[in-house]
Amino acid sequence: MKSIKPFDIIVILFIFGITIYLMKTENEAIKKAYIIIDEKKYPLNLDQNGIIDLKIYGKNMKVEVKDKKAHIIESDCRDKICIHMGYVKDCGDTAICLPNKTAIVIECEKNRYDGISR
């Protein structure tokens, strides 16, 4: 039986490193957040912390953006289900207030290039 040589270890570590890199870059996506009010889509900046009052759109609601995630903190709807939906932060996450016809949506756009075609 042959013994493992130092060059073999270097080759194995190199292949392992390339595999990890390709797996990491494969999952990258560009996140875009939106507030949808009465079927109109408005961009939501998740990089800027703060509270957004939706009265300017005719809704008695407030949305909080904190640490690159958003959630509804105040609403005049009866059941307040939208408030208890929690934070939206990942691709496909949604918080919806049906009585107010309002939603917070995170959409993701896959990278045009995968790890191999870079």
TrEMBL record:
Keywords: Membrane, Transmembrane, Transmembrane helix
Residue ranges crossing the lipid bilayer per the database entry: 6-23
InterPro entries per UniProt: NusG_2_sf
Classification via Gene3D superfamilies: N-utilization substance G protein NusG, insert domain
Name of the featured protein: Uncharacterized protein
Pfam families to which the protein is assigned, alphabetical: NusG_II
Biological source species: Calditerrivibrio nitroreducens
Claim: Membrane is one of the keywords in the record: yes
